[in-house]
From TrEMBL, chain A:
This is Glutamyl-tRNA(Gln) amidotransferase subunit A. It comes from Halonotius aquaticus. Its EC number is 6.3.5.7. NCBIfam families: gatA (TIGR00132). Belongs to the amidase family. GatA subfamily. One of its GO terms (biological process) is translation. GO terms for cellular component: glutamyl-tRNA(Gln) amidotransferase complex. Allows the formation of correctly charged Gln-tRNA(Gln) through the transamidation of misacylated Glu-tRNA(Gln) in organisms which lack glutaminyl-tRNA synthetase. The reaction takes place in the presence of glutamine and ATP through an activated gamma-phospho-Glu-tRNA(Gln).
Automatic annotation (TrEMBL), chain B:
This is Aspartyl/glutamyl-tRNA(Asn/Gln) amidotransferase subunit B. One of its GO terms (biological process) is glutaminyl-tRNAGln biosynthesis via transamidation. Gene3D superfamilies: 1.10.10.410, GatB domain, N-terminal subdomain. The keyword Zinc does not apply. Residues 348-494 form the Asn/Gln amidotransferase domain. PANTHER family: GLUTAMYL-TRNA GLN AMIDOTRANSFERASE SUBUNIT B MITOCHONDRIAL AND PROKARYOTIC PET112-RELATED, GLUTAMYL-TRNA(GLN) AMIDOTRANSFERASE SUBUNIT B, MITOCHONDRIAL. Heterotrimer of A, B and C subunits. It catalyses: L-aspartyl-tRNA(Asn) + L-glutamine + ATP + H2O = L-asparaginyl-tRNA(Asn) + L-glutamate + ADP + phosphate + 2 H(+); L-glutamyl-tRNA(Gln) + L-glutamine + ATP + H2O = L-glutaminyl-tRNA(Gln) + L-glutamate + ADP + phosphate + H(+). It is an enzyme of class 6 (ligase). Its EC number is 6.3.5.-. The gene is gatB. InterPro entries: Asn/Gln-tRNA_amidoTrfase_suB/E, Asn/Gln-tRNA_Trfase_suB/E_cat, Asn/Gln_amidotransferase, Asn/Gln_tRNA_amidoTrase-B-like, GatB, GatB_C_1, GatB_Yqey_C_2, Gln-tRNA_amidoTrfase_suB_CS.
Amino acid sequence: MSSDHTDAGDDAHNAFITEATIEGDDDGPLAGRTIAIKDNMSTDGVRTTCGSAMLDEYVPPYNATVVDRVLEAGATMVGKANMDEFAMGGTTETSAFGATENPAAPDRVPGGSSGGSAAAVAAGAADLALGSDTGGSVRNPASFCGVVGIKPTYGLVSRYGIVAYANSLEQVGPLANTVEDAALLLDVISGPDPNDATTNDGGADSGYAAAADGDVEGLTVGVITDLIEGADDDVVETFQASLDDLEAQGAEITEVSLDSLEHAVQAYYVIAMSEASSNLARFDGVRYGPDTDAEGNWNEQFAAVREAGFGPEVKRRILLGTYALSAGYHDKYYKKAQDARAWVKQDFDDAFEDVDVLASPTMPVVPPKLGESLDDPLQLYLMDANTVPVNLANLPAISVPAGDVDGLPVGCQLIGPKFSEETIIRAASAVED
Amino acid sequence: MTAQAVQTDEHAVVIGLEVHVQLETATKIFCGCSTAADDDEEPNSRTCPVCLGLPGALPVLNEGAVEAAVKIGKALSADIPERTTFHRKNYYYPDLPKNFQLTQYDAPICQEGELEISVEGDRREIGITRAHLEEDPGSLQHKGGSIDTAEATLINYNRAGTPLVEIVTEPDFRSPAETRAFLAKLEEVLEYLGVFDATRDGSLRVDANISLVDADEVDEEGAIDDSVLEDANRTEVKNISSHKAAEKALAYEVSRQKNAVKRGRALKTETRHWDESRGITVSMRSKESEADYRYFREADLPPLEVADWKDKIDIPELPDARRERFVADYGLDSEAASKLTSTKEVADFFEAVAEQFDPNVAATWVADNLLGELNYRDMLITDIEGRLDEFSRLIELVENDELTVKNAEEVVLRSMLDDGDDPETIIDREGLGKADDDAIADFVVEAIDENPDAVDDYHSGEDGALNFLVGQVMQKSGGSADPGSVNQLLREELDA
């Protein structure tokens, strides 16, 4: 393996923060394939910024487990993909290294937070990409860029070496141009890791790429009506057409309503921000962060580094998360959010008694224009309504292109019970056909 | 006596302890780094992404630490729950790699235990509220000054991730002496369990909470109502590192507080630092409000089912039980039994010797001779563990009358410890084999011939005369004769 930093390169969409090559092994299932790695995944000897000025100069001394696995499978890393700062955002515009443009929709955002990963695949700068999905960060950009993205069951893929944003929610997920390629990448990265105690063998004996056979005969698909209601009409129409297509191939389509979902966005943000406030505490200037001229005691110097090193969205989330965990508010916010999370899980479990997979548009809207949504965080948070329930419930989901609205990509999200990746991959491959 | 002084004496002391114990595991609590600190190791050499808290690194629980905690729980008769979980304690401090500490909160591995102590013959049960696992932070080194004046502070993460058990007691102590007895007992138990090394620097760290309450509030059993304790101003004393220091620090604190009350000053709720070298406590900060640690569950560590660990993990016989057994089974007096159970290694050594000899002989040799000589040399029983056979042979030589007790104790044993030689080598070198009977008979005749005055004294009934003659014979034999048989031979010769 060799590491080769290059500054030049034809990165017209700003999909990469650092263009660097790490050659993988000679053979393996990914031999000859190029891969973009989201810049929150540790790469030994190649800087890993998380899209933040705080980690501008941070070079990890070790590889994330998923990085080792793709390299051992023969893939060649071509660069560290752009992302929202610390994965906090849905447009890749909060990156300290500039926004990424959507290759499938000029002047529009690629989605996020794994926007660089999706854009690299959509633009052909990489055959495959790894993203991370905390509240939709793989599925959202996959949908906006017209590619395939998978959020695996919590515990299927190792998080060792992934810079944590909200560790109870996130999973590493593959992005690719086809369902089969994304599934192949999942075959490579999934499976227990002794360095991540939350991984398990729930996916043992699976063959994800082989499952992309388009056979949906007899499959029951429940459309989550609660997630249709908030979506744009054009988006719903395109989504509906892909369901009709599934029905024509032998699937049975029904409607399902999950009452808990109206609380999912609130619960998600309380939990994610609370965890983030703790996960990002280590960035205090002792070992990471920009130099400041700050005088004073430790706390004052920590504050100065964090003031200079974090962008506004990161600060907002750390402050709100700290608040939600504080004495006197913990029960009102954090505990309540955990109760809502349990309710969401229960609702999904109940729904899967009756259907094999659940479906919704991945995103309720088409990709916004660059700069359009940045000033309204609440609007951005609501854009996550369809993706966050999956993370709260630790379930697997896939976003597959369903068509377009005036040339702007629309994704169809398929959700399955825990460790049913084969089933949602099979269904997605039928949507794709 | 003034009215105020009377009032001072009417205060009772209430103390509770939080004891941090470093566990003796091979590796750190959440990674594979060694816990063994070399004296000359480089700073930050014993680290990895996990204990450095590098972005992306994840903790994996060391089951050895859990096992040690379960042993402690069993020794303290504590409840061990079905499942135990970890929480994050969030606070900013430069020695904390992640700016949160992984610890346990609402599901600690041990709850509601007890430990019996004895102070001046009074037995008391000290309640254990809980004991939980957590990670040790790194350590800070202030260059060119104290924490306030240093030019720079350096951080060494070698200690970071060392497994700790924090044992929290009920406020059951009524005197500093009781805390000392408790901590000494606790150390003894932990060493018996093999989970603790008292010789390791910083392996025991104690915080003590101390309050004065109106003596009338204490009932006959020593119990105090919770509401009284809540109302009392509480001082937390930090930086106590041994059972002896605990007694000193708290005795200082009791007299400081009583003096303050005597002078009509109100006691503040505050944190004080025990300054071992000056023998005083110093105020660090007043606690106007409790720190808010924003505890929440650590999702990176799945809950651990520990219910069946309790049955699977055995603990050795504990010191109290072993002491009682030594009295009952070997017929030892309680002083000898205490000495012989002072550490598990001493007790094991004694029992190995007692298997071969009369237990009282074994007890005398181990408790009086061996421990005394070891102690004099600052040695531990563990320093001679591999030499049990040599020690047994030494006793056997004496028991078989081939070596005098005096030579065995004063020459052979000492040389064994000082020079590391085996008993036979020493006996040959020093010519200590017991003299044969013919030689001794000759010495007896010689002694009588050379000391006619003493012989006359003997015949006129002076007691000292015989002892004098025994001494002469012993001298001639170079100590190799047995004084009892010399005495006998002299009498026979003189009375013939």
